[in-house]
Structures are given as C-alpha cells and as structure tokens.
Amino acid sequence: MLNSPPSPSPSRWFKSLRRTKSSDVKSCPALCSELLKRARAAFLAKRPSQETFRLSQLEGLMHMLEDHEGEFVDALSRDLQKPRFETVYSELMPVKNEAIYAINNLKKWMEPEPVERNLTTSLDDCFVVREPLGVVLIVGAWNSPVQLCLVPLIGAIAAGNCVITNPSEICSHTAELLHRLLPSYLDNECYHVIHGGPGDLTEIVDLEFDHIFFTGSSADGRKVMQAAARTLTPVTLVLGGKNPCYVDRDCDMGIAARRIAWARFLNSGQSMAAPDYVLCHTEVRERLVQALSSCLLQFYGPEPRQSSSYGRLVNAEHFALVRDLLQSSGKVAVGGQVNEAERYIAPTVLIDVLETDPAMQQEILGPILPVMTVDSADEALAFINQKPKPLCLYVYSSNSKVISQMMTCTSSGSFCSNDSTLQSMMVTLPFGGVGSSGMGSYHGRYSFETFSNKKSCVLRSTRIECITYLRYPPYEDRSLSLMTWASSMSRKGQGWCQIL
Prior knowledge:
It is a single chain. By secondary structure, the chain is an alpha/beta fold. The chain folds into 3 domains: 12-239, Aldehyde Dehydrogenase, Chain A, domain 1 (3-Layer(aba) Sandwich), CATH 3.40.605; 246-434, Aldehyde Dehydrogenase, Chain A, domain 2, CATH 3.40.309; 461-499, no CATH class. Helix content is 41%, strand content 16%. It contains 17 helices and 18 strands. It has helices at residues 12-18, 27-44, 51-67, 69-80, 84-110, 147-158, 172-185, 201-205, 218-229, 253-265, 285-300, 316-327, 377-385, 400-408, 445-450, 477-487, 496-499, and strands at 113-114, 125-132, 135-139, 162-166, 191-193, 211-216, 235-239, 244-247, 277-281, 331-334, 338-339, 344-345, 348-351, 368-374, 392-396, 414-417, 438-439, 452-459. The strands form 4 sheets. A 7-stranded mixed beta sheet has the order 10-13-14-9-8-15-16, sandwiched between helices. Helix 4 runs antiparallel to helix 7 (172-185) and helix 10 crosses helix 11.
C-alpha cells in the first residue's frame, strides 16, 4: 500500500522489462506470463480488495500526473508534436477527473445494492455486490496514449483488480515514460507495464486474463476478440469508425464551423471521437467551407506548419496512409499542403467527395474533413443508417425537432448536438461503441461496472418453512397456485394485500 510516492528507483522486474525490446516477439509474451502469475498471486492474497488500498493507488496516479506534468508534455511533444494546451486539456485533465471522481465515489460504488423482493423472499436479504474480476489486460492506443491507457486503468483499480497495462509502442516516448513512472507510484505486485507490439497481441491475449480492455482499430479488435474467444475471456472493445456530422441549414454557421474545426483538427485529426465527415445541404456548403477556412486562419494563422498550436502525424507510415487518402478523394477546398520530412499535412477540407472515395471507406485519423452534400435531413439519416454504427454522431442545428430526429432515428456509441467530442470527455457519461465501433463502455461509474462482476446474493434463514415447503414433491395444484402467487411480482400500486 502506498500512501505517498516511493523512491523513483525502478524495481528489479522493471529493470528486466527495460531490456525487453518490443521487436522481440517471444520475450514480451514470456515476460507477460511471469507478471500475470505475480499479479494473480497478489489478487488471490486479496491485496487490492480493500477500499483503503484502492484509494491509495488512485492517489498515487494523481501524484504521478502532478509530479511529472512537464515530462508528459515533453513526451507527447516528441511523439506527436502535441501542443502543451492539448496535452493538459485532452490527456492529463481527463485522467485527473476520472481519478478524483473515483476517489469521491468509491465507497458508494462498493456498497451492496439491494433489490426488489416478492413475498417468497420478503424476509431475506437480497442484493448485488460488485466483486473484482481478477487480473485484467488493458491495451492502450497511440492517438491519445496517456488518456486511453490510464482512464481504464483507474476503473480497473477502483473495482479492485490487478492490472497489466500495454501502452502503445507507436508513441514510444510516452510509452517509455509510463514504463518508467507507473512502477514508482503503484504497487509493484498488483500493477505491471509491458512492452508489447502488434505482433505480440494475440499471444498475450492467449494467456487467459479475466478481462481484456482494448482500444484501437477494428482490424486489431477482431484479432483480440478471436483470441479471447479461445479462452472465453470477456472483452471491452473501443474501436474507431466513420463519425458523421450533420450540419443543418438552420444553425449558427460560425459557431458550428469553430466547433467542428477544433474537434477535427485537434491532435492533427488523430482522434477517434472527432467528426470524420460532414453532411450538409447543398445550398449551405459554400458558407460552411468559407466559415471553416476562416476558423483555420484564426486557429493556426496563414501557415499552419509554423503554428505552435498544430501537431504532426505520429509516424511515416501513418503519414503516407493519410496523404494517400487526401490525394485520392474529392477536391481540396482548404489546405492540402504536405511535407513528408516533417510528417506534416495541413488542416484540409475536401469537397466533391464521392461515397466510393477512399476517404469515405475508412476512418481517417488525420487532418482531413470530407464534406458531402444532401438535400434533406431525411437523406442524411438514410446515408448514416446504411453505414456501420459509428462511435460518435454529431448534429448542428437550431431546430430541436431535427436534433431529436437525428438522435432517435440513428444508433451510435454517443451523440452530441451543437458541439463535438464534448460527450467523450465527461466522466459522468459512458463512452464506448456499438456494433462495429465496439462493445462495452467506460468512464466514471461505468468503468467500475465494466471491471466488476455483479454477483447476486440471497441471505436467508432455515427457520421459516411455511411457504418454502409448498415447492417440494409430491406436487399438487393447490401448492402450485400458492407458490405462483407468493413468487409473482405485483404491479405498481398493488401490494400483496390488495392482490388477496
């Protein structure tokens, strides 16, 4: 138990971990297997079950972020050229909010939840308890390497689990920082960090964890689910997709453009929650594109490449992928400049985009915003509903009927009107996908539920047999009638006496 951060000198297992290269496919699963045994032993010894222990670990995470904020800013700058503002606002603050919310509510979450009873169980204690699952694996993603690793970790700790965390090696500086810092602030028997690349993933999943939490691409999500199925390991998958954004003719175009542009080009467009494409009326497209152009000029100046508020794509491979989407889809209306040496792609708006264009066939995860036109809200609805269910759906309109129609007639992991990505940062709302965009959710109480087993409990006495005996053979119709009456739930407003 850690009430205050210990000495930052790494433990022996961490030193051996530092020597493990992510390119060594055999060593990472082997090391993970050893750490899994240690974590399993710690879990069976009930180390993480006490409320005070869980709180101390959550406090440790808070101390880590506060003590090393500058190092996180530097690591994300080196990996993504992410501005300090974006790192603090979209990476560190959400993690701190999650930890604070869990600390404030943990006692209440851990309390047994009573359930409604019928006459048969009226003298029994009937309740649900949340028990930890065991040892869970959390696989983070590269586009928000701190938040997408630590937010689920907070939920797993709060629920009383032991955890093995696998930060994305693509953001190597951030991953290395997490490898170095987490062992200094969390219990070294219950919580471990591994270097695991894409080639290691299925072997690691095969090690029979009690739950797997994966954030990443749909292709990798399928591999994780297939591997987990072999051992019947439950999974939570937060996957990407094409997040639609409908801009109605009846809206404040200036506000809509600012909020869409900020969300789309935050982190150079490398966000799972960002609007992936826009649907708008033909007659408002020109106004929208002009408003987006004005916003980008205000945000990043005439040359975004020189702006300290604009980042870069994560690596050469991803740069090439996004550049190819840009060059093979629609027509550039705003931006379009690229610089391969810097992994730079300017904030870009595309028009005359076809449904069959490459940029409309896959998640972009880059600073490109395709704009397509529709003749009506109904046509936009039809377009959205013929596609796989998205992680997020956005609508900009001053018409409450249009907003309600978009919300009720579509299915998505989350929905937000007149803003973008806001819902994904709220600790009190669940965040996750549906269908091809994922399964399960997390954030706040929902993270605690994700990493808990809801155990049904009935505590009863052997003294009262006046009703129970009716269920025993030999069976009689009279006994069946009485047992059916005693075991049935009454309608609202009708008590047992009224039924009699």
